[in-house]
TrEMBL record, chain A:
<dbReference type="GO" id="GO:0043625">
    <property type="term" value="C:delta DNA polymerase complex"/>
</dbReference>
<comment type="similarity">
    <text>Belongs to the DNA polymerase delta/II small subunit family.</text>
</comment>
<keyword id="KW-0235">DNA replication</keyword>
<dbReference type="Pfam" id="PF18018">
    <property type="entry name" value="DNA_pol_D_N"/>
</dbReference>
<dbReference type="GO" id="GO:0003677">
    <property type="term" value="F:DNA binding"/>
</dbReference>
<feature type="domain" description="DNA polymerase alpha/delta/epsilon subunit B">
    <location>
        <begin position="178"/>
        <end position="364"/>
    </location>
</feature>
<dbReference type="Pfam" id="PF04042">
    <property type="entry name" value="DNA_pol_E_B"/>
</dbReference>
<feature type="domain" description="DNA polymerase delta subunit OB-fold">
    <location>
        <begin position="32"/>
        <end position="158"/>
    </location>
</feature>
<dbReference type="GO" id="GO:0006271">
    <property type="term" value="P:DNA strand elongation involved in DNA replication"/>
</dbReference>
<keyword id="KW-0539">Nucleus</keyword>
<dbReference type="InterPro" id="IPR040663">
    <property type="entry name" value="DNA_pol_D_N"/>
</dbReference>
<dbReference type="InterPro" id="IPR007185">
    <property type="entry name" value="DNA_pol_a/d/e_bsu"/>
</dbReference>
<dbReference type="InterPro" id="IPR024826">
    <property type="entry name" value="DNA_pol_delta/II_ssu"/>
</dbReference>
<protein>
    <submittedName>
        <fullName>DNA polymerase delta small subunit</fullName>
    </submittedName>
</protein>
């Protein structure tokens, strides 16, 4: 039996860019939300005004006040969505404060909804080539059109701000992977400890043959993106928690901590809070308290991060949220899939346009860069991801990849067979080519490329996602793999005799 | 032209007449005798002439005396006129015989003068003016009568005339003849003239086409006149009329022909002028319509557009009214309510609905004097309403006036029309020197006689109006009764409705705010945003928050109309306008009186008209006489029930309209009463003196009925022996006026109901109209008794008669009770009876048997009573509680195959509004548990659960708000005796005089913990004071449990031997969950008062004083596990051992609350109460919305929790906006 050659885990330069999401321990005293909209409009208007001459060079740019009937022009303003449909929310509003949400998260769209464009000088109702279903309140756009006789603005074309400029990718020649996993929900009924343990073992290189271990050694970072623990709502509804019940809370946290400790012992881990984690509710969510991770937090490889999490790894920029922003878009607008929502936020150049209208967020414009994150001239990320709440199949994940490149992705599926008390483990690398042609990619004005990734809940799907950070030909795939390709690690258990 | 011909189809007479009746009831005429009037004569009448236009036409025996004044008086609902008329109605409706003849004589003299004057003038003859305005219901009734009609008229001048006996005899003798020749009158002309008169009421937008028609059709009218004038000469007329006709034998004919030519010319004139003035303001046209003020040179006739007018209501076309709903947004100072002396109008919203096509048009007028908004387009981007911007308040008001005048609405509506809406506008306008109410009326003031399109900016105009502005103020505050019971604002010719007050009769609520009513009626949530916030939004201008204000007030204007319409659709409750119109038709009184007057007015209106057909006059006693009439002696039978819980079926039976059927069955009437057998004072009957003629009594001795209170009444069939020799008997039918009235009403109601059944499903509108009519008839039948008994305010009470009705009813019920009790087969026992109902206990029977026996009882009791008296089987209660008089509750079944019983409560707290909803809910639930389980221990465990919840504060404050009517000014002077609601209201008024509650407004209050030994009056505050996020107050749970809930329940369950106080005392007390170490200090931060609209000045005081004692104590419990710990710690050592748990619980709790608050904010955002652009957070403070209470509760918890979490470092401090 040959002695295994010790493999060295690769390293990557990491810098955390989360400061802008940090809320220092100060109190906020009723800021005006109008500042947010004002700042947003101000920045975006400068941007759009700069773009307008190249978009429609012959047209004048004006304000709502300056509109003239029948005259083509360009107006820049914030969209306001007037939603006619008033869902009878109050019927669903339960009598008591119960665990069930007061409003079911169904889509509130209605064909009679219409958009209104507003700027400092006034508001005008929009008609024409601007589908209300595709927009939400708070988006800043430039519109080409003219005023009609009834006082509406007939839109002919819409200009969105598009992607911000990007920094160039460094061309390293090593494969480096980042693993994303979300929705562990430790402590919930759907959580399978074995599944997670398999993932850990795979990541840390305790599993598989040399080939796989080589891959594992290329993993430079794990990001646990939200909803890691599940706390039963009865412990947080304001009742006192008796000592005997405290273990119900403590156990899942301890379990998560133990598992994370295994990972951090071999490679760095970022953990982001999600909407079900014991963190604050409004965006930006602040890092989970370190006391929750008494074991893992002793390692310097462990870092607890804020919810919009932004970091740079070997000059590749990552930006991700735990999905609240996309869920809110889903409530108030329509799209083919969630990736389209993500794409829209990039095109609108705003991570959470619906905040603060329908999405809670901290209002201090100075401190929480949240609403202005994408517009203050920062280079756009190369990887943009969010954590999906629903289970999605892997083909779904395929379609999630929408990059400037023709891309391929790699799925790793781990099958586990339980046979006569003996666990036989099959780690299988699968390739998915169900959709060989992708919809046209979205190039930014300067040919920026962003990979959008939506990560399913691990506890329900058993899928984690691997992203490669460098441009490299991957050895056992016959296609040229460019940078930023994405793999999924799928772990499932089957119990056939 | 065809349409015109159709409209004058002879068959359509009834429907033509089917319009709004005139105030004075003068329309009560034989429908075949058509009236005719001369328009040119009308136009020539002097303005404001108090005299009658005398009757001249000798042929018109049914002397129609109404002249211009009369006609005019019936037109607009002008307030002055109306009050005059009312006064006349009440004081001089029954002039003595002497007065009558006098006035007749004077009329005759005037007649003479007028005619002579007319002969040499070019003016034509005059024919009594009268609309054949009659109502179809009355038509029906009239057809049932077999006697001739006379007529009663009231004039404007105050001297009401009645046809004298002599005249009516003539009528009777010669009636047939006259009747015959009037048939010859061309029908077209009849309908035409009648319509003319009718249409006056609706004079609004005359279609031009009809003018042409009218011009073509006028000659037949003249021919007709000539034809029956020629009859005149041949017909022997009575002396007065003969005199007039002989004095001017030829003039009518001559002038009639003259007139026909003039008229055609004039018609052309009208057409021209209308064509040319198409663009001119409508006010001018209104002027042209008014025939009174017309001078000779611009002698224009009434536009003949009214030709072919048919009452659309009769064919299901609605009421043809334009409703105009108005709301206003004003500036305000701080928390104070707007005051017209200081606060300018910011925006006015108008919603206009035309009854004909049910479209709603919304206009918003905004005051904005920042230059940039002057552009032509609306910058607020609001779809569905027209926004106009005016730089000055005055421009806005002027535009409002011209809008009202051009739209010419019939009804003006506002939610709170006195302090808000039109009332505020009027007061503000008066402050600015504009006579708003006068200028929007249909009777414009004289100084506006010149066309108002001439720009009015001169100081002279302002001065002239300023004087009238004083009138406005007077008008607003003057009339006490209408101020407290109706709208209190009068616009000549238009009806002003104070919607919230009308809603009190429509829906039963604890709170008559617009939001509460909209929620109840439309199932729609409306936000209520404090004026202060609205103004802040408004001030941000068009690009920011102003659109929210505009949406807010335009929605409010619109919702007024929607509420009115919605009430139309609900089957039982009727649209106010539709129903009121129908009531007005049925009773023969004007629209506004239906809303503003009591039921006596209605009864009298119907009774008098009927009485006169039978040659009766109503006596008109003075106050002194009314007061000195013998006291009423009889009371209806109200048994004290055998208070108990009845598990066996109890059958409820009641006499259908008992009192009306007593009147009919026993012929009880003023006119059939022969006096008491043993009168207490001699010669006294009711308010007047009377002594029966002994001979008559002897003659009638077999035909008399002695009622149980010892009063004699003659029976309908009376036989006189005329001649003994030939053994001839004369049968006289002497049916009283009241019985006849009621009989007709009841049978008409049956007819209407039958007609309703024949309607197809497509005739919804007609169905509603008919239903409204039959309801009106039912109503009037049931209040007739009250008219005879109204001893204090009554116009014509008669104690003996009222007593007889009551006593007959009582006797009927008593007989029925003893009949039931003694029946051998039923083995039933009457356990309770009230006036007209009895509760029959059938011990040991099943429900099916109960239904069978109940029906048997009903039929056999009905059989032993005279005709219209019917005992009706109503329902079976099983089980039920009978508590005391008029208080009972049970599960009722109306048919044997009904499986799900209905919870039916009378008089107990579940249906009363003098307690808070918590009492009603708990009582109803526990009674239901008792009914279903029949197990007291289940009730007890339910109650203990509820009490625990209340004590631990897990309840919505909404259920603990009392709302009681406050009638300031009616309480005695000592402040200590004021009821709690009045105390709350007076406190609010201290800081803001405009906060004075409207008369009988329900003022909400809650009871809080007070100082030890505090009286109740010290512990009541406005709910906003408690709901405020930083409020130092705490709900007084003990008061609610021990003083409200337990007594109400004890009354019910005490019957079963339960002692609820004992239950409560034995119950373990829950620990109040304390999430924070310290109750947060009141007034903390900038935001404690944010969004809360405090009517009281309590807030500052409370902050200053530091609030309650709680503030000084700290919780000594661990906030996780609630173990006892050292004072200053937050968590116990045990919990701190596991910091992860502490962090999780603290962060989890806070984030859950934050999620909830965001969720609630999203809900409020949908309804319109939230705005995140200008003002962060939800601003709606509607007490009618459960979300508001929930929001406040969570806000309070979140604030406490997040503060402690933030201090412990587990959570960032929450956004202040959440609070």
């Amino acid at each position: 039996m040959p002695v295994p050659v010790p493999m060295e885990r690769k390293q990557a330069a990491y810098s955390n860019l989360d400061e802008r999401y940090a809320i220092q321990g100060e109190k906020y005293q009723g800021q005006q939300y109008s500042h947010i909209y004002f700042t947003r409009l101000h920045h975006m208007r400068n941007l759009l005004h700069a773009l307008a001459p190249s978009w429609k060079p012959q047209l004048p740019v004006t304000t709502v006040l300056g509109l003239e009937k029948g005259k083509d022009c360009i107006v820049v303003g914030t969209l306001y969505k007037h939603m006619k449909l008033k869902p009878s929310i109050l019927d669903e509003y339960s009598k008591e404060r119960s665990a069930v949400p007061l409003v079911k998260p169904h889509n509130f769209m209605h064909p009679d909804d219409h958009l209104i464009l507003e700027d400092e000088s006034g508001r005008v109702t929009l008609a024409g080539a601007i589908p209300p279903a595709a927009f939400v309140t708070g988006v800043v756009v430039a519109l080409h059109g003219k005023e009609t006789s009834v006082g509406n603005f007939l839109v002919e074309d819409v200009l969105e701000a598009g992607l911000p400029p990007q920094t160039a990718l460094s061309s390293a020649d090593e494969d480096k992977y980042v693993v994303f996993v979300s929705g562990l929900s430790v402590g919930s009924g759907t959580f399978n400890p074995l599944q997670f343990q398999l993932l850990i073992d795979h990541i840390t290189g305790h599993l598989g043959d040399e080939n796989e271990q080589t891959i594992a050694s290329n993993i430079v970072r794990v990001v646990v993106a939200g909803n890691s623990v599940h706390i039963s709502p009865r412990f947080v509804n304001g009742q006192t928690v008796a000592s005997k019940d405290q273990s119900w809370i403590a156990e899942p946290i301890k379990e998560l901590d133990i598992m994370l400790t295994q990972i951090v012992a071999s490679l760095p881990v970022d953990i982001m809070p999600g909407c079900q984690d014991p963190a604050n509710f409004s965006l930006p969510q602040q890092p989970l308290h370190r006391c929750l991770f008494s074991g893992a937090s002793t390692y310097n490889t462990f870092s607890s991060c804020s919810n919009p999490h932004q970091f740079e790894l070997d000059s590749v920029q990552f930006l991700g949220t735990s999905g609240q922003n996309i869920d809110d878009l889903y409530k108030y607008s329509d799209a083919k899939d969630k990736l389209e929502f993500m794409e829209r936020t990039l095109r609108w150049r705003h991570l959470a346009p619906t905040a603060p209208n329908s999405l809670g967020n901290y209002s201090s414009p100075a401190q929480s860069g949240m609403p202005t994150v994408k517009i203050v001239g920062s280079p756009s990320s190369h990887i943009y991801l969010f954590i999906q709440d629903a289970i999605h199949t892997q083909t779904r994940i395929l379609s999630l990849l929408k990059v400037a490149h023709t891309s391929t992705l790699l799925g790793i599926k781990i099958n586990m067979k339980l046979d006569c008390w003996k666990v036989v483990l099959h780690v299988k690398l699968c390739m998915f080519f169900e959709h060989p042609t992708y919809p046209p990619c979205y190039p930014g004005p300067e040919k920026q490329k962003v990979r959008l990734i939506s990560i399913p809940r691990f506890s329900e799907s058993g899928v984690a996602v691997m992203v490669c950070t460098v441009m490299h030909d991957y050895f056992f795939i016959q296609f040229n793999l460019r940078n930023l390709e994405c793999s999924t690690l799928s772990f499932s258990t089957s119990f056939d005799a | 032209h065809t349409s015109y011909l159709n409209s004058v189809n002879p068959n359509s007479t009834a429907s033509v007449g089917n319009t709004i009746p005139q105030v004075d009831g003068s329309s009560d005429e034989n429908p075949k005798v058509s009236q005719e009037y001369d328009r040119s004569k009308l136009t020539r009448k002097a303005v404001g002439s108090p005299s009658y236009t005398p009757t001249k036409n000798s042929s018109k025996s049914a002397s129609k005396r109404a002249g211009t004044e009369h006609l005019w008086g019936s037109l607009p609902f002008s307030r002055k006129k109306r009050t005059d008329q009312n006064a006349d109605d009440s004081c001089s409706a029954m002039p003595s015989q002497k007065d009558l003849s006098g006035s007749n004589k004077s009329t005759a003299e005037k007649n003479y003068h007028d005619t002579t004057g007319n002969t040499d003038g070019e003016s034509s003859s005059f024919v009594g003016v009268h609309g054949s305005v009659c109502h179809s219901v009355r038509d029906l009734m009239r057809r049932r009568r077999s006697f001739r009609h006379e007529q009663l008229e009231f004039g404007n001048s105050g001297a009401a005339t009645c046809t004298s006996d002599k005249e009516s005899e003539t009528v009777n003798s010669g009636g047939l003849k006259f009747h015959d020749f009037t048939i010859d009158v061309p029908n077209s002309a009849m309908a035409y003239s009648g319509d003319e008169c009718l249409r006056m009421t609706f004079a609004q937008k005359p279609p031009l086409k009809n003018h042409v028609c009218s011009g073509l059709e006028s000659p037949p009218g003249c021919e007709q006149r000539e034809c029956y004038l020629s009859y005149d000469e041949g017909v022997p007329a009575d002396n007065e009329e003969a005199r007039s006709s002989t004095l001017s034998p030829n003039s009518p004919t001559r002038s009639a022909s003259e007139h026909s030519t003039t008229k055609v010319a004039v018609d052309g004139d009208v057409m021209e002028s209308i064509l040319s003035n198409k663009e001119s303001k409508h006010l001018d046209e209104c002027h042209d319509f008014s025939q009174i003020s017309a001078e000779k040179e611009k002698d224009k006739l009434t536009p003949l557009s009214q030709i072919g007018f048919r009452d659309p209501a009769s064919i299901g076309g609605g009421q043809q009214l334009t409703i105009f709903s108005m709301e206003v947004l004003t500036e305000s100072r701080g928390e104070l309510r707007p005051d017209p002396r200081f606060d300018a109008i910011n925006a006015v919203s108008l919603a206009i609905e035309d009854d004909a096509d049910n479209t709603v048009e919304v206009h918003v007028f905004i005051r904005d004097n920042s230059g940039k908004s002057r552009s032509r387009r609306n910058l607020d981007g609001i779809a569905g309403c027209n926004v106009d911007v005016f730089p000055e308040e005055r421009d806005l008001l002027n535009n409002l006036i011209s809008t009202v005048c051009s739209i010419d609405p019939d009804i003006l509506v506002g939610w709170e029309i006195q302090l808000g809406s039109l009332g505020f506008l009027a007061e503000r306008a008066a402050y600015l020197g504009i006579g708003l109410l006068k200028r929007i009326s249909r009777t414009p003031p004289h100084e506006v006689n010149h066309p108002p399109k001439v720009p009015v900016d001169d100081s002279s105009q302002v001065l002239a109006e300023a004087t009238s502005a004083d009138d406005v103020i007077d008008d607003v505050s003057e009339n006490d009764w209408s101020h407290t019971h109706a709208s209190g604002i009068h616009v000549g010719g238009r009806i002003v409705l104070n919607l919230w007050r009308l809603m009190r009769a429509e829906v039963k609520l604890n709170n008559y705010s617009l939001e509460a009513v909209a929620d109840e009626v439309l199932r729609r949530k409306m936000p209520l945003i404090p004026n202060r916030i609205l103004n802040r939004w408004f001030a941000t201008g068009p690009g920011r928050g102003r659109h929210r204000c505009i949406e807010y007030i335009s929605n409010r204007a619109r919702i007024n109309l929607e509420i009115m319409n919605q009430l139309d659709l609900v089957n039982l409750i009727f649209s106010m306008v539709n129903r009121t119109s129908e009531l007005a038709r049925v009773f023969g009184i004007d629209f506004f009186s239906v809303l503003s007057r009591g039921s006596q007015y209605r009864v009298e209106s119907m009774l008098l008209r009927l009485a006169h057909t039978q040659n009766y006059l109503a006596i008109s006693p003075g106050n002194q006489q009314v007061a000195s009439q013998p006291a009423m002696e009889c009371l209806p039978l109200v048994m004290e029930p055998e208070s108990a819980f009845y598990p066996d079926p109890v059958v409820v039976l009641d006499f259908q309209s008992l009192y009306p059927s007593m009147i009919i069955a026993y012929n009880l009437c003023y006119s059939t009463c022969l006096g008491k057998v043993f009168p207490s004072k001699s010669n006294v009957l009711g308010v007047s003196s009377y002594s029966a003629d002994p001979h008559t009594l002897v003659d009638l001795k077999n035909q008399m009925l002695l009622t149980p209170n010892g009063v004699l009444y003659v029976q309908p069939e009376v036989m006189f022996l005329i001649s003994e020799q030939y053994q001839m008997f004369f049968i006289l039918i002497r049916k009283g006026a009241l019985p006849r009235l009621l009989e007709e009403i009841l049978s008409t109601r049956i007819m209407v109901k039958q007609a309703m059944k024949k309607l197809g499903p497509s005739e919804q509108v007609l169905h509603r109209i008919f239903n409204a009519r039959q309801l009106a008839l039912k109503l009037i039948a049931n209040v007739t008794y009250g008219y005879t008994a109204a001893g204090f305010s009554g116009r014509m009470p008669c104690a003996e008669l009222a007593d007889s009705i009551v006593q007959c009813g009582r006797r009927t019920l008593e007989t029925a009770i003893s009949f039931v009790n003694q029946h051998p087969l039923w083995k039933a026992r009457v356990v309770y009876g009230d006036t007209d109902s009895m509760f029959v206990l059938l011990k040991g029977r099943s429900r099916e048997e109960a239904f069978r026996i109940g029906k048997e009882i009903a039929s056999s009791i009905s059989a032993i009573n005279p005709d219209p008296v019917t005992l009706k089987f109503e329902k079976v209660y099983q089980p039920c509680f009978l508590l005391t008089k008029k208080r009972y509750v049970g599960y009722s079944y109306e048919s044997p195959d009904q499986n799900e019983p209905v919870f039916d409560a009378k008089g107990i707290e579940t249906v009363r509004r003098d307690t808070c909803p918590a009492v009603a809910k708990i009582l109803e639930r526990s009674i239901r548990i008792m009914f279903e389980e029949q197990d007291l221990t289940k009730v007890r465990s339910y109650l203990e659960r509820q009490w625990t919840r209340i004590l631990s504060g897990k309840v919505s404050i909404r259920d603990f708000i009392f709302a009681k009517e406050v009638r300031l000014g009616t309480y005695s002077a000592r402040a200590s005796t004021l009821p709690p609601a009045a105390i709350v209201a007076t406190k609010a008024m201290l800081s803001d005089p405009r906060a004075e509650p409207r008369y009988a407004e329900r003022v909400p209050y809650v009871v809080i913990h007070g100082e030890p030994g505090a009286r109740l009056v010290d512990m009541v505050i406005d709910p906003y004071g408690l709901l405020e996020v930083g409020s130092p107050y705490r709900l007084n749970e003990l008061y609610y449990i021990t003083k409200q809930i337990i007594p109400a329940l004890q009354r019910v369950f005490g019957l079963l031997g339960a002692d609820l106080n004992k239950w409560f005392n034995e119950m373990p007390r829950p620990i109040r969950p304390t999430l924070a170490k310290r109750q947060s200090a009141p007034g903390h931060g900038l935001f404690s008062r944010d969004g809360s609209f405090i009517r009281l000045g309590l807030n500052n005081k409370a902050c200053g004083k530091g609030g309650r004692i709680d503030t000084y104590y700290m919780s000594s419990h661990c906030s996780i596990c609630s173990d006892l710990i050292q004072g200053s710690d937050t968590f116990c050592e045990n919990c701190l051992k596991n910091e992860a748990v502490v962090a999780t619980v603290v962060a989890g709790r806070t984030s859950k609350l934050e999620r909830e608050i965001q969720h609630l904010a999203a809900i409020c955002g949908h309804c319109g109460g939230a705005d995140w652009i200008v003002e962060s957070g939800v601003k709606c403070i509607s007490l009618a919305c459960p979300v508001f209470y929930e929001r406040r509760k969570i806000q309070r918890e979140l604030r406490v929790v997040s503060e402690s979490a933030g201090e412990a470092g587990y959570y960032p401090f929450c956004c202040a906006e959440l609070f």
